[in-house]
Amino acid sequence: MASSPAAPTATAPASVEPTATAPTTVAPASASLTERGRQKADRRAAILAAAATLFAERGYAGVTIEDLGTAVGVSGPAVYRHFAGKAAVLAAILEGASRALLDGAERVVDEASDPEHSLRALIAHHVDFALGDADVILVQDRELEQLDAGARHDVRLLQRRYVEHWVDVLSRLRPDRAEAELRVRAHAAFGLLNSTPHSARIPGRRPADGAVRGILEEMAWASLMS
Amino acid sequence: MASSPAAPTATAPASVEPTATAPTTVAPASASLTERGRQKADRRAAILAAAATLFAERGYAGVTIEDLGTAVGVSGPAVYRHFAGKAAVLAAILEGASRALLDGAERVVDEASDPEHSLRALIAHHVDFALGDADVILVQDRELEQLDAGARHDVRLLQRRYVEHWVDVLSRLRPDRAEAELRVRAHAAFGLLNSTPHSARIPGRRPADGAVRGILEEMAWASLMS
DNA sequence: TCCCGATGTTAGCGAGCGTTAACCGAGATG
DNA sequence: CATCTCGGTTAACGCTCGCTAACATCGGGA
To answer: A95 and A151 in contact (C-beta within 8 Å)?
Structure first.
């Protein structure tokens, strides 16, 4: 993932991509998606992916702009062609993660028929994310404070909405419990479900992802409904 | 919160600097009861307490040596009279936390009569620590990677021993389960129990500590025994 | 009482790093 | 084909910050 091409400057661009032979046709359908635009989008995504990994490994402060560039095959200040600064990279990661988590929760709750299935789906979806995007989860947990006030507020808002979906479902399952308690329980469940991204970097043989998934789902359900 | 030393948390980390890896349950520095020695120990403890709060708030990289000095009423390089460097402060915090957690677990397990009481006591002790030393828990979770290899290894060793106590108790309660699963469960329980230090800084009215304590203990037990 | 060592102080060095400036080559535009 | 845009390059600025040096002060053992 962090491998860089051999020739940064004098690359022969003819063999890089299976590009269309004649760009003379220009971009008909893409409103703003010319070939260049696509490459730009790809590079931006690559920077984000590499940044998530690096931030998770060494922490936001332990990664330099130069590192980010090198990880995607460009060097240093080229990153500024895609992001306003280092903080903007972090903000994009965190906002993307919060939005993905929230979107998934809303989709999943809409599709479920009853509260029990909703909760099971919420748990499954969260486990999916935690096991699939462990780096992002880690960064989300650790580096939220590094954001400037504006971006931090935005992310907090998305997170709050995510929590509220859980609280809604829980309050339908357990109307006897106060919302404050359910909120504490939801946060505790997040801590439980996010445990593997934290403990995964501790050496030692762990069960396969499939087994972990089952364990976490069972534990989350039992803890929330206890 | 950053200046008042009087805190309900009575964690007095023993000396960590010297090479001697004594049991360190009690401060050996108090042997020299001279006025100066006591003041030095106090200042060292004050620096550690302030550092834990500041590291939790802004992250290890976001706190300067100058900040640490200012927080205890001295300025800048005076900190070097008590610690070899910024990293040594973090190391002292993390090693102190791990050792306190481990010592408590061993004491608690020794006193319990049967595995069920052992697990309940382990959970209660961990909740005590998480609610009482939230700052330290946060730093422990986030900044372990900032340590140099030696100190990180030491802390990991302490943490590993702590986990093994949990796994031991769990395997006596559920001999049918593989150790690998029990280890995953223990880590998940830690994530659950450590959730309040993470979510506490999110605004919003939460239940009192007593109520949170009960909720977390119930959830941890249910998740582990499910 | 005298001197040593421990604990402060301020000044300043040196490295790292985020960011900007100036320039360059090629794809899109007309 | 002339030109403009844009994503890339290298050089360099300026700031922050960990850490060291040099000096002051004072408690406490001889």
So the answer is: yes
Strand C: list positions under 7 Å from protein Cβ.
Answer: 6-12, 16-22, 26-29
- Radius of gyration for the alpha carbons in chain A, expressed in angstroms and rounded: 21
Contact A180 B206 (CB under 8 A): yes
39-78 in A: which are within 8 Å (CB) of B? 57-62
State the total domains in chain B: 1
Angle at the Cα of A124 (from A196 to A152), degrees rounded to 5?
A: 65
Is B207 within 8 Å of chain A by CB? yes
Mutate to test the interface with B, among A199, A206, A224 (most CBs of B within 10 A): A199
The nucleotide closest to A76 (CA, C1' atoms): D9
- Residue A71 sits in the same domain as residue A91: no
Instruction: Answer with the residue of higher pLDDT: B21 or A181.
Output: A181
pLDDT at A183 over 60: yes
- Using the predicted structure, report yes or no on whether residue A142 has a pLDDT greater than 50: yes
CATH number for B194:
1.10.357.10
Which pLDDT score, from 0 to 100, does residue B26 have?
34
CA B10 to chain A, closest CA, distance in angstroms equals 26
Residues A194 and A114 in one domain: yes
Closest by Cβ to A191, choosing from B156, B178, B195: B195
Cβ contact (<8 Å) for B222 and A223?
Answer: yes
Neighbours of B110 (CB within 10 A): 9
Asked if residue B149 belongs to a domain, the reply is yes
| Contacting residues for B204 by C-beta, under 8 A, at least 6 apart | A183
Question: Distance of alpha carbon A214 from its chain centroid, rounded?
Answer: 22
Tell me, yes or no, if A192 comes closer than 8 A to chain B by beta carbon: yes
Is pLDDT above 90 for A206? no
A158: which 2 tokens? 């998305």
Chain B stretch 155-184, residues whose beta carbon is closer than 8 A to a beta carbon of chain A: 156, 159-160, 178, 180-181, 183-184
A151: containing domain? 86-225
| pLDDT confidence of residue B33 | 64
Q: Return the CATH number at A75.
A: 1.10.10
* Cβ(B53)–Cβ(B2) below 8 Å: yes
User: Comparing A54-63, A147-156, B21-30, which segment has the lowest mean pLDDT?
Assistant: B21-30
Inter-helix orientation angle A86-111/A35-58, to 10°: 90
* Same domain membership, residue A105 and residue A193: yes
Q: Is residue B181 part of a domain?
A: yes
